[in-house]
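lol forgot to send this yesterday, sorry. struct tokens for the thing we talked abt
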């Protein structure tokens, strides 16, 4: 059963990490290293069971391969999850134990911050391995959330240009599902441009912070966000929010957000959105800003270069929308084809990444 799940998306390697003393229960998934070492964040979440955690890490790591490829980065796709409550079960020992497992992989996987983890958590991991990114105190880039939000903002503008004839967000009504770090920065950009934003989150304190920092922001209960009459629906929390129970409730003309795996069933729900006249911007395309920022760090960090590369998400989104229209196909099919073409083309030059010996400068 486990190998069936792994082979379904052609994963190269999955590592199960257990340390009784620290309480660590983690899974590292390496999807594809054709383009380079697998880079992807470490998520900490109280999954209901091990199977749910495995499915999440497999889907997320698969998406990271496509995200790196479509963004033109020389990185493979990977992801890691720790099973646990990030609000009550974090410890130095937990993250240092995880760091030892990352070190043991020999550079095939590089970890970073994600949902439920922070820069300070990465500092603990860095005590055990150099294969961790996003640590400002060591000359790194720090929290990637502002760059993820910046990319979503530009991708959203490109989508609005297609649907409404202008990329201006002034006066647009945008429903943002989530009020975490990425959503907070995204709302900041939207507010500055004059958009009307409706937000929600399961944590009231996060919602209060976003409202206090921005103008023209209103709040609804978590389940009510799907029923908001808006121009853009922007999932910015966990995945699977567009599903059989919610898709018919969405009243937006565009779905463009920061969350990974927004569609519960990628092809079926993408088709459902298209049939309802809703433009879907593939999540791994529009939310690539954080990955781009970390990639620049690996090459020698320049914030200006990271911002410039992230702004190019506008052009990538525009090209995918145009390609999907020209080929009369789904936007996610068009983006998948582009990502796969680059992996396949470069795979003829070099096959899989074998470890640290291929990247002496890391």
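and heres what i got for the seq, position by position
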């Amino acid at each position: 059963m486990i190998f069936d799940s792994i082979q379904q998306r052609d994963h190269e390697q999955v590592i199960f990490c257990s340390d009784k003393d620290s309480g660590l229960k983690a899974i590292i998934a390496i999807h594809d290293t054709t383009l380079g070492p697998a880079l992807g964040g470490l998520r900490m979440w109280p999954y209901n069971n091990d199977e749910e955690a495995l499915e999440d890490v497999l889907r997320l790591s698969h998406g990271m391969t496509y995200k790196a490829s479509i963004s033109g980065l020389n990185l493979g796709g990977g992801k890691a999850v720790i099973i646990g409550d990030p609000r009550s079960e974090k410890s130095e020992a937990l993250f240092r134990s995880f760091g030892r497992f990352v070190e043991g992989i020999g550079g095939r996987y590089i970890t970073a911050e994600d949902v439920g983890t922070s820069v300070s958590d990465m500092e603990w991991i860095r005590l055990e391995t150099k294969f961790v990114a996003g640590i400002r105190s060591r000359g790194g880039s720090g929290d990637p959330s502002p760059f993820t939000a910046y990319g979503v903002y530009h991708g959203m503008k490109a989508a609005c240009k297609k649907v409404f004839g202008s990329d201006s967000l002034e006066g647009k009504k945008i429903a943002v599902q989530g009020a975490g770090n990425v959503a907070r920065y995204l709302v900041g950009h939207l507010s500055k441009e004059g958009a009307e934003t409706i937000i929600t989150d399961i944590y009231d304190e996060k919602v209060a912070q976003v409202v206090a920092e921005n103008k023209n922001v209103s709040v609804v209960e978590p389940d009510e966000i799907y029923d908001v009459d808006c121009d853009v629906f922007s999932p910015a929390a966990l995945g699977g929010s567009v599903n059989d129970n919610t898709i018919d409730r969405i009243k937006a003309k565009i779905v463009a957000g920061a969350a990974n795996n927004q569609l519960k069933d990628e092809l079926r729900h993408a088709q459902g959105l298209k049939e309802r006249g809703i433009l879907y911007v593939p999540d791994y395309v529009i939310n690539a800003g954080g990955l781009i920022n970390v990639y620049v760090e690996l090459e020698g960090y320049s914030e200006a270069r990271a911002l410039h590369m992230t702004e190019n998400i506008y052009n990538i989104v525009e090209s995918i929308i145009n390609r999907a229209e020209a080929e009369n196909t789904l936007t996610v099919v068009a983006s998948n084809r582009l990502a796969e073409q680059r992996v396949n083309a470069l795979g003829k030059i070099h096959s899989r990444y074998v470890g640290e010996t291929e990247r002496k400068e890391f």
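Residues 50-70 form the longest helix (21 residues). anyway ping me if u want another try
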